[in-house]
Amino acid sequence: MSANFMRHLMIIELLVLLFTTTSCSAKNKKSEKDYSPMHRSEIMLRKAIGDSISNIILKANTIEIGCDSATITKLGNNDCSIIRYLVADSCNYATDTEVFGQFHVYLFVKFTSKKKTITAQYDFRLHKWMLIDKDNKPLRRFDLLNVEILKYALLAFPENQKLIEILKEQEK
């Protein structure tokens, strides 16, 4: 066999190897563009708070929202989907900047799934929110980077003057 023939054979083998490995990896990888916005949010939620906590939020049988102990509302199916989307918003899991001030709960969302409870508490003035367990033990805390949950709370509680005042401050 000539050296020229061997060189052509090696080039062909190299090309075959290159095409087979490229096509295999391209078929198996799913790009981030293939996921819906909610699915991307769920992935970020699971990475930020873990599977056990996120499962309670995403698979909750009942979701309650309240501004204080006097205003608690059990949500219907459509509202539950909206709340899950707002809580799973990926921008709200990015940071936890240290701020000074007392955390004051202006809004809470309570997720219950199979006797397990997780509550999201929101402080709109400190721009913080945290997840607590059923014993009020803080699990995770994050910066609140948008006011979409506040706008939803105003839809649920349109007469709440505290929330109206806070939204006006946020929009300045």
Characterization of this structure:
- 45% of the residues lie in helices and 20% in strands.
- It is α+β, with helices and mostly antiparallel strands and 172 residues long.
- It has a six-stranded antiparallel β-sheet with strand order 2-1-3-4-5-6, covered by helices on one side.
- β4 and β5 form a beta hairpin.
- α2 packs across α3.
- The longest helix is centred in the first third of the chain and has 26 residues.
- The chain is elongated, with a radius of gyration of 24 Å.
- The N and C termini lie far apart (82 Å).
- About 3% of the residues have low confidence.
Q: Name the shape in a single word.
A: elongated
Largest sheet: 6 strands, antiparallel
Quaternary structure of the protein: single chain
Query: Which structural class is indicated by helix and strand composition?
Result: alpha+beta
| Proportion of helical residues | 40-55%
* Proportion of strand residues: 15-25%
* Helix and strand element order: HHHEEHEEEEHH
Give the strand line-up of the largest sheet. Answer: 2-1-3-4-5-6
Radius of gyration (CA) equals 24 Å
Number of strands: 6
Q: If helices are DSSP runs of H or I spanning 4 or more residues, what is the number of helices?
A: 6
Contiguous low-pLDDT stretches (5 residues minimum) are 23-28
Cα separation of the termini: 82 Å
- Mean pLDDT reading: 79
Based on the model shown, name its key terms.
172 residues; single chain; 6 helices; alpha+beta; six-stranded antiparallel sheet; 6 strands; elongated
